[in-house]
Design goal:
The chain has two domains: about 60 residues, Arc Repressor Mutant, subunit A (Orthogonal Bundle), CATH 1.10.10.1590; about 80 residues, 3-Layer(aba) Sandwich (Glutaredoxin), CATH 3.40.30. About 45% of the residues lie in helices and about 10% in strands. It contains seven helices and four strands; from the N terminus they run ααααβααβββα. Strands 2-1-3-4 form a four-stranded mixed sheet, covered by helices on one side. Helix 1 packs antiparallel against helix 2 and helix 3 packs across helix 4. The relative contact order is 0.11.
Length: about 170
């Protein structure tokens, strides 16, 4: 089924085509990997809605990406519960071990590191979303294991060198 056909099928489930914008954006992002302007315009045209409506949703929600992201999008919650449980140290660790800063993608295109306002999983803080999966109760050891498993999924060798540890108080 083409992207247009999938979007049309999704739109048929709603009383208003405007209500199908989010499902249509998910379909388009799955097809293209991200949502550049031309794709947003195509979605609006398929649905027959105002382009601004599509743009507003695509730029408001963190699940939509208007720029390319790595194969694994690491979205670390930086809301109060996660901050109090060590998310800032985890962010510094990730930046050091990946050699990139939040908002950037590693040169190999494997990881994009972002922070998000809230993942709604305070009971397992600190928490990070990778793709559609949540990883909670994070600490450095769990992050190392997670990165190792993601690299293994991607077929990359894991470095034998220990990852740099953030110093206390940084």
């Amino acid at each position: 089924m083409t992207m247009r056909e999938e979007i049309e099928a999704a739109a048929a489930r709603y009383p208003s085509r405007r209500s199908a914008i989010m499902p249509a954006l998910l379909i388009a992002q799955k097809e293209h990997g991200h949502l550049p302007g031309a794709v947003l315009e195509e979605v609006a045209d398929i649905l027959g809605v105002e382009r601004i409506w599509v743009y507003e949703l695509a730029t408001f929600y963190t699940l939509f990406h208007t720029e390319p992201v790595g194969r694994f999008h690491l979205q670390l919650c930086d809301n109060v519960s996660c901050m109090l449980c060590g998310a800032e140290d985890l962010l510094r660790y990730l930046e050091a071990v990946l050699g990139t800063e939040k908002g950037e993608t590693t040169p190999d295109g494997l990881f994009t590191l972002s922070t998000v306002e809230c993942l709604g999983a305070c009971e397992v803080a600190p928490v990070m979303q990778v793709g559609d999966d949540y990883h909670g109760n994070l600490d450095i050891a769990r992050l190392e294991a997670l990165l190792e498993s993601l690299r293994a999924m991607a077929g990359q060798a894991v470095s034998a060198e220990p990852a740099p540890q953030p110093s206390a108080g940084e």
